[in-house]
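Why do we care about 3D structure at all? Because function follows from shape, and shape follows, mostly, from sequence. That is the central idea of this module. The next example makes it concrete: a single protein chain, its amino acid sequence, and then its structure expressed as tokens.
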Amino acid sequence: MVDMKLKESIPSNSVKIIELYNKITSEILNTRPGFQRKLVWKKQHKFHFIETILLNFPFPEVYIASAEIDIETLTAKEIVVDGQQRLTTIVDYIKGINDFANQKKIPPFEKLLNEEKKDFLNYLVTVKDLKDMNSDIIREIFQRINNTEYSLNAVEKINAEYGDGEFVIFCKQIVDPTFNPLPEDTDVIINSVIKEDLNVFFNSYNIFSDNDKSRMLDVQFIMLVVATILNQTYFSRTTALNKYLEKYNSTFSDSDEILSKLSKAVRIIKQLA
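And the structure:
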């Protein structure tokens, strides 16, 4: 680890959004190097982030590094070490694609006044350039920036990464009477009557102890149940949840069907009790 020590701290530079945008669209700056995680932001995160820029509020710095020189075009390639989701969101917003197509939550870029567009494109992003550092050091920096493993159990690690995703929000509502998300946070708000019925079932039968709840084991159980219904085959490994956490992070189109099956199962169990 001593061999990885940097000679000095990495300085920060201010780079305009328009410069980063042109680098990305011309494929000089790669936002998806191999070590990067898949995109996990959902549309609410993206809208809030763009609103941050429109308000001229600051956001955390972005890390980039040199990749290779393109001999054909005589250009130096770069990669995003940290800031993938922020930069990808900015590009999508300017282009009006993906979650920014036909949305009404924030003003579309194309409908901004000319001065507002200039302000957005001239917004200064704080960038730390790792230049041509050793790839092992770059990976180590990425892992340390994104470390969420400090004494967390498996489900707490999931919550740290996907806690605001539609799949997790749906599952939390089923077991937690105090968890009542707002419409601006999610599209999968469970009907209050159905939610109360499910909450009472899981709490009045003492299915989970207070310690279970404090360690989010109740949420883990429900996520496994929902994933089993979706998978149509039983599995018990928490790691198998990743497929559904990623697939249903932004939208959970099957939530109504799953809720119907869960409610039916609870009714049958109550009749047998």
